[in-house]
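hey so i finally got around to running both of the ones u sent me last week. sorry it took forever, my laptop kept dying halfway thru and i had to restart like 3 times lol. anyway pasting them below in the order u listed, first the sequence line then the structure token line for each. didnt double check formatting much so if smth looks off just lmk and ill redo it

first one:
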Amino acid sequence: MGNGLGFGVFNEAGISFSGAGTVPKVTTNIEEEFIFAGGYAFRIPLPESWNSTFDTGILLKAFINTMSSTTMDILDLMDVFSDPAAMIMNEPFFVSIGIGVDWGILYSYKEVFSVGLVGRDLPSPVQINEYSSFQGFLDNEQPLKTNDFLPIDLSFGIMYKPPLGNLERYINNLKLMLDYEDILDFLTHSESSTNPILHVGFGCELDVLQILSLRAGFYQGLLSAGLGLNLSVFTFNMAMFGTELSTEPGMRPLYNILLGLEFRY
């Protein structure tokens, strides 16, 4: 809406398979989530002589998450594809409803250096309704209800844009970024906390001739790289990055490739 005020409705759906072992058990999750969010951000005036800006913002959100989950031998996985509706209708079905608050601050100096702090889910109460199956949900079965809170996520990041001098005729922008995510995981959800190395991310982004963006870095101890192509009417982005599925570096790495197209009218 402008002037620091904004609203959004978001939807995400997906299916995932995960497993481990020589003849592993495979867990299949089918999930969909709706998020309704509204936020306001504003700038706090600072003395002009400081050559700095200080911004803060708050986001209020409500969400509904539905998930069907089942675990089976990998040899039985083909049964899912032969009759996927049976898995959804007959396996445990979860509906989670909650609200939350996100908050953040950003300090910038001369558009050269920035430091930010964000707190997500401050707090976020959630009610989890467990049904025996999706069919039970449709039949208004009385669910097993659990009230809980999403763990607080406090993350910190810095960015530095070094002056490039004569190179600025060819290189329009160079950003060096470092962040540390989920600082308090050992307090807020100690049972699933991870090695501190997995919280660290480092990256750089280079814009060439206002068209090509080159990106590289490390996240969760794994290499990441990407590029972007800005052709005014649309933007093409490609990224390759790693995700660590265990709580220790290098134990269960998984690499991902993402492609994106953004059209402007």
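and the second one:
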Amino acid sequence: MLKILLASVLWCGLLLPFHLFPLEDLPNDVVSMLLASILFFFIVLKYRSQMVALPVSALLLLVFIISVIGSSFVQESSFLFSDYAYLIFLFAGVLVAVAAGTLKEHGNDVVPLIAKSLYCIALITATYGLLRHYGVLKLLLPWVTGETTRLLGPLNQANLTALVLGLGIISSVFLLISSRLRYPNTLLSVSYMSVAASLTGSRAFVIFVLLIIAIPMLKLCVSPRVMSASRRVVQNRWKQVVAIVGLVLVITFVFPSVSRPISDSLIQAGFIERGEEEAVSDRFRLTDDYRSEEWRKLQAYPQIAENPLFGFGPGRYGVFSIEADKAIEDPVRMGTLWSHGHNLFVNVFVELGIFGLSVMLAMVAYLFALFWRSEFLPRDYFVFSALGALFVNNMLEFSFWFFGFFALAIVLVSQVDRRVKIKFSSSFLPVSVGGALLVTSLVSFAYVGSDYWGAVKGFHKANLTQEERYAFLDAKKNRFVGGYALKAQIIREQVSLFGVEAQIRELERYMSWRPEMVFMMRSAVLKSVIGPQEIACDRVKETVGLYPNSVERLADELVEAKQLGATFDIAFIQGCLAEGMMYWVELSRNLPPEKGG
């Protein structure tokens, strides 16, 4: 049962398809973290009279938690949503580490189970994605809406879908070389996964596949003696492995040409509504690179960071991004908020400062030491190939924001890591600790879940009852999800002139955490109402200069405020709005944009 619970953390984290605004990924994380708490309780219950084991890497994770706490405390604003979320997320990771390490210490090898789970998850993801891509899934799951040019799996994000499929192919190779999957079945399954992956348009998927060959080569370079002694692990299957990699790459680049006529026919028939498919080969030809432009903002970090040692605070990358936009010359904007840096090191450095980055680099160095010392048996081959895929993804995205991937990395490391054995003098102590953590988790997740559902229902339901409206309004007080609930309320509700100054204070507090478009837009309207008009003008220009999609809604709300009795000079503010849009006007003319906002 313990192994099943461990696998269920991954299954729920990577497969639940309930992505409802304003907290699209919360169900996956909440359910998988709750399962982690249940798993930890049953682990300490079973081994209460023996011992539990903590992987050495988890000690570094505890130090990382200290860096998060330190970063949260040094911020001027009080603890806000992401401060709590980061701590719960990381502590849940420690629970997974203890569970996986203890199972390993007592002779339970979970690597085959993890590989089989990822294999099945990838097959389900491919099926889900293909059904959705060709318009069938909306007939089966009505809440799955929005047809995009890139294939989306249950995680509702193309690059994460490609990561799941890449992990599935890596798992297939492990199952093959460990004689758990026959070669014809392996070819069939990886072909199916590759068909789906080719339509995600993910360039990183190609790297995931190449890691299957690259990881053994890297091991040969760093540990030639160990590798030569264990080369028999893959020697008999090496030609088959190379053939699999070649097959996957061919399908990845060829299948979109087969799919495009099919999609065009479905679009013309009105069965699906979307633009032209984005194939991997198309995305390799892209010339714009918003990531590198975003990373260029790091040059402004020394001059804008108030506390370089501890950074801007957990979850506050967006604050840095906008402050750096003002500080650098000729910023390149996407028109959306960068809530993270699309790179693990960049994100940790900005949010947690030099201290957090130092701990992260120590973790990476420790993992490389584990790789160097490993015997490189099939299980090691699988563990480090899968970790390599996760690492590559986190250099370009940030999949560790999703607990399923974070827990997967922790479980994988625990299978090759050394362990610290902990034996309790009384069997009552670990059970009471595990029970207290489980009860706390149940209460916390019930608290979060209630307000999450209130925010979701409040945003999506056409006609709210009085009780539902109170729940919708009350959700913004939640310490974990309140900011997202307020975001949903602003989008749904019209501007109100009741308690304008209090509204502005609340918005400023939230903008110090995450300067989302809706927060800045409503703040611009309310500042226009109470003045002074020069300050209001600056906020309006800044808002539309960063978020061009805010123009129409902002203009409408200014008119609404005027109709409600506000006495500001709307013509002056509309002029500020037009001035703020000049960045985007010049950009559309392919001229070097002047700094806007």
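quick thing i noticed on the 2nd:
The chain has three domains: 1-10+26-108+424-493, 112-280+374-420, 499-597.
anyway thats it, ttyl
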